[in-house]
Amino acid sequence: MYASTPTDKPWTVPALAEARREGRKLVMLTCYDAGFARVLDANGADLVLVGDSLGMVVQGQASTLPVTVADIAYHTRCVARGLSRSLLVADLPFQSDADPQRALEASTTLLQAGAAMVKLEGAGHKLEVIAYLVEREIPVCAHLGLTPQSVLRLGGYRVQGRDDAAAEQVRADARAVAEAGAALLVLECVPTPLAAAITAEVGIPTIGIGAGPQCDGQVLVLHDLLGLDSGHRRPKFVKDFLAEGGSVAGAVQAFAAAVREGRFPDATHSYA
Ligand code: KIV
C-alpha cells in the first residue's frame, strides 16, 4: 500500500492549487477500468484521467476522433468504482465541447458518471466554453500544446511551440484558459523552456506530458507506463515503469516517486 503521500485524504479541486503553492508535484495517470483504478488509487496517483486516448489504446482506433461521450461516460463509471482517493478527470471527446450548451450537457453526463473535473482541448472559441462551464460549477482542466483532437489540421502528432511565434501563441493561450477559469492545465509535447515559462506565469497547476520537468505535475497514458505496445509510434516522453517497478503497483509507485522527486522526466524524455 502506498503510504508516503503528503495527504491520504481524498483529493479535491482546491487541493490541487494548494499542492502547487506548497511545491508538491502532482501525479496523474490515465485509466479506463475499475481494476486498474484500484491499483492507481492505492499506489500514489493523485489524479486519474479517463482520457479519450481510450480510443487508441482500448478501442484500437487510429485517432481519438471516434470517441463519444457515451464511451467516456461508460469508462468513467467503471473507474469511479475503483477510486477512493484520487481525483477523477474525464475528457470531453471530439466536438462534444464545440459550443457551451453541448459542453454543459456532456460535462453533466461525465460528472454524474463520477468525474470531478472535465478536460477539454484548445483555447480560441473554447475560452467561452471554459467560462460557461466554470460559471455552472463544473471544474475544467485545459489542454494545450499538442492537442490530439487537432490531428487532421496538424497533419500528425508533433511537438508544438517550437518557433517564437508558435511559442508565444501557446503562452497567450495558457494565460487565457487560466483567466477563463480553468483550474488545471495539461501541456502536451512542448519544449521544456516553454512549459517552464508557462508554469511560472499562469496561476494554475500545469501537468506535463512531453513538456519537461518543470511542470507542477506529470501525466502518462497507463499503457505507456506499462510498456504495452499500442500499435502506434512510441513518443520520446514515454518510459516503461513496469520494467523498473516489477508489477503494476510497483510501476505506479516508481512513476509517482520519480515525479515527486523530480527525476522524471529527464532530458531524454523531454524536448529541448
Ligand atoms: O487522452 C489522454 O489520455 C490525454 C493525456 C495524454 C493527457 O489527454
Describe the structure.
The structure is a single chain. The chain is globular, with a radius of gyration of 17 Å. By secondary structure, it is α/β, with parallel strands linked by helices. The chain has helices at residues 13-21, 34-42, 54-57, 69-80, 100-112, 126-135, 151-154, 164-180, 192-201, 222-225, 242-245, 248-260; strands spanning 26-30, 47-50, 87-91, 117-121, 140-145, 184-188, 206-209, 217-220. The chain is built from 12 helices and 8 strands. Helix 2 (34-42) packs across helix 4, helix 5 crosses helix 6 (126-135) and helix 8 (164-180) runs parallel beside helix 9 (192-201). The N and C termini lie far apart (36 Å). It has one domain (13-269): Alpha-Beta Barrel (TIM Barrel), CATH 3.20.20.60. The protein has an 8-stranded parallel barrel with strand order 1-2-3-4-5-6-7-8, surrounded by 8 helices. The structure holds 3-methyl-2-oxobutanoic acid. Residues 30, 49, 51-53, 91, 143, 186, 209, 219, 221 line the site of 3-methyl-2-oxobutanoic acid (KIV).
